[in-house]
């Protein structure tokens, strides 16, 4: 943690002694204002900036790839669209989870659109796989 100069006062609370210096902007912080990210102290404004600038989570990126693969694999799975079902379920669950993290302020805002796309692709995969299964069932029952 970066120590402030002796006698420094908090930028937001002039009555409080500074206990740290923001690693991004250099403002003095009291214990109430200090937010530690990683091992560095930051002020609330800089934490917000870091959050907006952060990359989308790797989980959402992986779910996006999985959902695209699920769509690509669908025509090749003549009997059981299992990859598409798994991809769809993963997309819905992981996309929704990431959207909740973003709304709570725990996830990066840059991941918002990607999480929405992942969730939408997940629902699309689930609908397509279900339609595929229904069509296969209808064909099978027609033969019987």
TrEMBL record:
Keyword Transmembrane helix tagged: yes
Key words of the record: Membrane, Transmembrane, Transmembrane helix
Record-annotated membrane-spanning stretches: 59-78, 120-141
Protein name listed in UniProt: B box-type domain-containing protein
Organism: Pyxidicoccus fallax
């Amino acid at each position: 943690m970066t120590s402030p100069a002796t006698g420094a006062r908090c930028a937001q609370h002039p009555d409080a002694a500074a206990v740290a210096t923001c690693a991004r902007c250099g403002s003095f912080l009291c214990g109430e204002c200090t937010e530690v990210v990683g091992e560095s102290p930051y002020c609330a404004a800089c934490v917000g900036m870091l959050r907006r600038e952060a990359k989308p989570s790797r989980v959402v990126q992986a779910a996006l790839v999985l959902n695209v693969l699920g769509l690509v694999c669908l025509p090749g799975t003549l009997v059981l669209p299992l990859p598409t079902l798994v991809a769809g379920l993963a997309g819905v669950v992981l996309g929704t989870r990431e959207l909740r993290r973003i709304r709570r302020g725990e996830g990066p805002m840059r991941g918002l659109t990607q999480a929405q796309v992942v969730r939408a692709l997940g629902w699309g995969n689930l609908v397509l796989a279900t339609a595929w299964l229904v069509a296969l069932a209808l064909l099978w029952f027609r033969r019987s």
